[in-house]
Amino acid sequence: MALVLNGSGITSANLVNGTIVDEDVADLAASKLTGALPAIDGSALTGNVGKVLQVVNVYSNNMITSTSASRISLDTLSLTPVGSGSRFVINWFLQANWGGLYSGFGAYMYRDGVEIAKSGNEHSVYTNTITDNYLGGSWSCIDTSGSTAGTAISFELRAQPYNTNLIRFSRATQTRGFVIMEIAQ
Of the CATH numbers 2.30.30, 2.60.120, 2.40.128, 1.20.120, which one belongs to the domain with range 63-175? Predict the structure, then answer.
């Protein structure tokens, strides 16, 4: 059947089944999409679309004590990347307690022995010598160093006490650790 235009344009009433096939659409503005949309395959999306490839974590509540003002290792995690060129979103948290005057700590994240991030403001508090004081925090960073699929990477959480007062990192009622998400780029 031939299509005859009478000056009023083509409407859906003129289409056989009310739809237009892909081959007939050269460009469609996003503003024209309304109503409930069907599920789509994410592989068809363009632009910088990350995908979570894996999530790994380490948690601990074993107590580590220190009377040193040097950085000490608290927890490590070995991760074998699924993808090459991945980035890593790292969230870490730590609690500590001490008895005594002015004390505190800084928290640090390492990748293969190299510092990649540290706590924004190192924590401290002034207290009396009788009280058992608690302090903690959580921090995040994005490691953009990249990766090679199948080549293991070591991540490590370290802390540095402010001074040589006794400080305890975690105990039975507290936890520390970190979560790493590998993101494809």
Answer: 2.60.120
